[in-house]
Amino acid sequence: MNKKSSTVKNIIVLHGWGLFGARYKSLAEILSSAGFKVYAPDLPGFGNNKSVKGDLTLPDYASYLKDFIEKNKITSVVLLGHSFGGRVIICFLDKYKDLIKKSNIKAIVLTGSPLTRSKLSLRKKIGIFISKTGKGLVESIPVVNPNNDFFRKLVYKIIGEWDYYKAGQLKKTFVNIINYDLEDKLSEINLPTLIIWGENDRIVSYSDALKLNKLVTGSKLVGVKNATHKLPYEQPEIFASEVISFLNSL
Question: How many domains in the chain?
Fold first, then answer.
């Protein structure tokens, strides 16, 4: 693994929905061994940071990131967001433009983040139709009764919103998060940006990465073959290698 030669000193890793900072331990260790100081906090509602009052919005999470940076006096930093974490970063950049210079934010890294407006696939349309009409259609079949836990899991899997099913007490927060439109903010990003994506990502498809690459001026896209949405922690060596190479080019 190449050692760091860039002016970046710190990396903040923001986890995906339903995950927590320690899930990226292997990635953090590789980046640390290359000379970077890595922070991987638990976002509100997750991991060891579950004491949340009320329903949160994406700007609430952006505010948390702002406070985290200021409290820890972090400068010369790169923000790395996986999935939901990437949404937090884009909202943060939009809300706290003054901190980009003040904290010397050098670049951002996005992976598997749902940031563009995507048309519903046929699979999702079918799943939504079933979820809305299923009770009348299949209530006589016990195994797929819409009141049956198995049925609900199946529907959420079909429409690709498994995260919603897992959200538990954060379901309203999850709805707030996904309904917050960020696409118009992407063209305003004025930082070096690495987009690294698993080409077999079935949660946020590689076509989203291609669109994201076009919307973020000057961004670099790296597709990783045989990699899924879990790329940052399932293949941390490959992921870290691309990140370090990118940061050393700054």
Answer: 2
Q: What is the pLDDT of residues 154-197, one digit of tens each?
A: 444 544 444 544 556 787 888 788 788 999 999 999 999 999 99
Smallest CA-to-CA distance from 222 within 245, 203, 204 is with 245
Residues 41 and 81 both lie in one domain: yes
Number of residues assigned to the chain: 250
* Residue 132, amino acid: K
Q: How many CB atoms lie within 10 A of CB 66?
A: 15
Mark which of 170, 189, 210 sits at the end of a domain. Answer: 170
Q: Which residues constitute the domain of residue 130?
A: 122-170
Going through the chain in order, the beta strands assigned E by DSSP cover 10-14, 37-39, 77-82, 105-111, 193-198, 220-224
Say whether both 105 and 18 belong to one domain. Answer: yes
* Beta strand pairing call for 77-82 and 105-111: parallel
